[in-house]
Amino acid sequence: MRYQTQSANSQGLLLFEDEETAARRAAIDELHVRTAIYTASPVVDDLLNRLGWPDGNGRLVDPSCGDGMFLARALDALLAARPAGFDPRGQIEGWEIHPAACVDARSRVAVVLASHGWSPARAAMLANDMVHNRDFLTDGPTTPQWDIVAGNPPYLRAANVPDLLRNEYSRHVPDYARADMLHSFLERCSRTVRPAGRIGLVTADRWMVNAGASRLRERLGQRLSLAHVERLSAETAFYRPKQRRAGSPPRVHPVAVVLVSDDGAGQNLSGKPIHPGVDESRYEDMQLLGDFADVRIAPWLGTEGVFVVDAATARSLPPECLVPAVDTDDIQNGKLGTPTRWAIRTYPGEEPAPEVMAHLASRMHLMAKRGRQGKVWMPPESFHTFDLSRESLIVPRIAKTPKAVRVPPGILPINHNLSIVAGGAATLDEVEQALASPIAAEWARDYAQRLEGGYLSLTTTLLRRMPMANVPA
């Protein structure tokens, strides 16, 4: 049975809609709240200029136009270059899934038209023809239609897209472009631009650097070349519609990207990550950290209280089963404090002491689901093969620079922090100095994934590839 619900349209009139329509409207509203981040006009103007707009009789589309800033700036530039009374329909159009945002976009376009001499009524009519209240991912074309695609597509991981819409998109988007709505828009735009056409977008940088987007980059490279990329400031690149909280920058690291459709010639996009603004030649011919040091990730032993215990619990367990353990909260003023927790060390082929088995039986119900695996006396990531007899370094994996802290022998770093043991001719002193050097900090800023507040995500792969200028070969 279908039920009718009462809602108001953009003019405030009461409407009745069936349950299916109401669910879809709610999903679109939810999507809009999560993705409505609009681009400031200076950024728009710069990107349109890089795209060479206006371009003769070329056709431009914004596939997710929001409140119409890209359309308005493109339209103003076009009308300024055309005779009075020029009808821009067929040369500029926008698509927007959210009804209220679509109304805003039409209003903004109508204002531009009126400023170029159209009557308000005629301007409103033209604007309605130019801005479509439709979903580009499900209703948009899949063959070349436009010479220029320009805009700021939504950035939202698939897991956060409302279920109703995510299910719809799965029927229209190839698997390699489903992880994020940005990926889906990039893929669709690549198919709708004509040969020798251009795509200019403001995007999050995730698709350029994340390993999970390598297939997307590779497939885009079959159609497109990268002509320009630059980082933008999140604080100045965007403004927000009224329903979003003002006063704080969006949680995104934006880039301006220009892609060129060259019909199969000269692609320079591949599965390899793209690092905007990085001069890779400056790091050539340097020793890499992974060449002379063992970089490993500290084990995650699961929920604290099971395989990681406090002093009171440790006193009830056999000392030979315990190893002092440290995390980043044990670091104070750049130094490692006295450990306050212990890790229970067990072995796959050997059942531990009765006290340990009793402790695990009483605490295993606390363990996170992803930590329950294998034998009941083994942690989710075992460390029984680790050689703890040597001094090591711990490098916090979330940090502003890759500075390290000394860890004495016999102490285990935990919780996926990065652990380094010197090898070869290098000493731990040299490794520590190299990590604190300006070149290491620059490398991290260039290549690490950016987080919030200036923090970076450091990984074992990143550190192994980090150039160390002051370490002997």
Automatic annotation (TrEMBL):
InterPro entries: MethylTrfase_TaqI-like_dom (IPR011639), N4_N6_ade-DNA_methylase (IPR050953), SAM-dependent_MTases_sf (IPR029063). GO terms for molecular function: site-specific DNA-methyltransferase (adenine-specific) activity. The keyword Manganese does not apply. It comes from Paraburkholderia aromaticivorans. Residues 141-220 form the Type II methyltransferase M.TaqI-like domain. Its EC number is 2.1.1.72. Coiled coil: none annotated. This is site-specific DNA-methyltransferase (adenine-specific). Belongs to the N(4)/N(6)-methyltransferase family. PANTHER family: DNA METHYLASE (MODIFICATION METHYLASE) (METHYLTRANSFERASE)-RELATED (PTHR33841:SF5), DNA METHYLTRANSFERASE YEEA-RELATED (PTHR33841). GO terms for biological process: DNA modification; methylation.
